[in-house]
Amino acid sequence: MDIDLPEYPFPQPTALEPPPEWAELRSGCPVAEVRLASGDPALLLTRYSDVRQVLSDPRFNRLLNAEDAARITANESGGVFGAEQAEKTPTGEAHQRWRRLVGRYFTAKRMAAMQPRIQAMAERLLDEMVAGGAPADLVSSYGFPLPVWVICDLLGVPDSDRAKFAYWSDHMLSLTRYQQDEINAAEQEFGRYIWAHVDAKRADPGDDLISELIAVADAEDGQLSQMELVGTAQGLLIAGHETTANMIGKMTAMLLADRSRWEQLVAEPALVRTAVEEALRFDANPGFGLPRYITEEIEVGGTKLPPGTTVITSMAAANRDETAFESAGDMDLRRAPNPHLSFGAGPHSCIGQALARTELQTALTVLLDRLPGLALDVSPEELPRREGLIIGGLERLMVRW
C-alpha cells in the first residue's frame, strides 16, 4: 500500500464548501489514485465527461464483492457496499428486469399524484415545529420525518418504526462510524424485519409498492425472488429517506447561507423547480460518490484502466466542472438546462428521482410559503456535518423565524 496516497473522502473546509482537491484534480489529475477508509487504493474521477462515461457504461459494474475489488469502508464487509447486500442486488439483464418492474411504480405521473399528500404532511410537520418555538432543528423536525413518512407509505411499513429505520440505515451507510459487529447486528435485524414484512404483504396485500411487486412477480412467473424483494425494500428504505432527508437540510442551508438566494425565492416562488435542481448540482457535501468495478481494460480520460480496477465517481466534483457548467462555482437559481449528475446516469441512475424531486420541491415550497422569514440561527461555518457515513448531510440545522 502506498501510504503517500491522499485519503478519500477529502475533508471539507465547512459543511457547505467543497474540498479544494476537487478543482485541483479536475485540472491536473482527473484520474487520481486515492486511499479509501479500508486502506485499499482506488481511482477517483472528478471531471464531468469522465464521470458520465463511467456511469453510462455497463462494463463498469457493481461487483464490489469481487476478490480484487477495493473495500470501500473501514470494515471488511457489510453495509450498502458489502457482500451480503451485493447478493440481493440484481446485475446485468436481471438488473434491467428489476428496473422495468420497479420503474412501473416510480413514474413522474404517479409521483406527482402523491404531491398533495406530501404537502399536507409537510404542513403538519411545520405546524408542530413552529408550535415548539424557535430556535428549532429543521433536520429532526422536518427534513427527516417527511421523507420517512413518504417511503413508509410507499412500502406499507409503519411510520412509527422510523427510529429503527434511521438506526439501521446509519449502520448500513457506515464508512468509519461503526465497528463490524455493530454493522452485522444491524444488518441482520434489518433483514429479518424486511423479510417478515414481505411475507406479511404476500399473505395480506395492501395498496403499496411491495404488494404490487409481489403481485406482478407472481403473475410473471416469479420475476422477482424473495431475496430480490427484500433487497428492493431495504434499498428503497435507505435511499428513499436518507438521501432526500439529508438534501432537504442541505438545500435549505445553502439558500439561507446567502440571504439573497432565499429572498429571491420568496419573491419568485416559480423558481422552486430550477432552484432544487441547482441545489442538487451545487451540493458540496454529498458523501462518497458511486464506486464501480471493471473486469476488462477500458480507457477513461486518456488513461487505460486495467481489469480489477475499482473506480470512484465523484458526481459532486463533476457537477462543479467549468467545462460542463458556466460559472460552475456560483449557485444560479435560474440555471437551465442543468444536466447535473446527482442522480447518476445510464443504466444505474436513481430510479426514485421523480419522487425525490417531488419531495424536495414540495418541502421547499411549503417552507417558503409558511416561513418566509426563516433564517439560520448559527453562522454557515458552524453547521455540523454528519461524519463517518457514506452519505453526506448535516447533523443539525438550527433555524429561527
UniProtKB/TrEMBL annotation:
- Cofactors that this protein relies on: heme
Q: Which InterPro entries match?
A: Cyt_P450, Cyt_P450_B, Cyt_P450_CS, Cyt_P450_sf
* SUPFAM superfamilies named in the record: Cytochrome P450
One GO biological process term is: antibiotic biosynthetic process
What are the entry keywords?
A: Heme, Iron, Metal-binding, Monooxygenase, Oxidoreductase
Look up the domain of life of the source. Bacteria
Molecular-function GO terms, alphabetical: heme binding; iron ion binding; monooxygenase activity; oxidoreductase activity, acting on paired donors, with incorporation or reduction of molecular oxygen
PANTHER family in the cross-refs:
CYTOCHROME P450 BJ-1, P450, PUTATIVE (EUROFUNG)-RELATED
Q: Provide the family line.
A: Belongs to the cytochrome P450 family.
The molecule here is called: Cytochrome P450
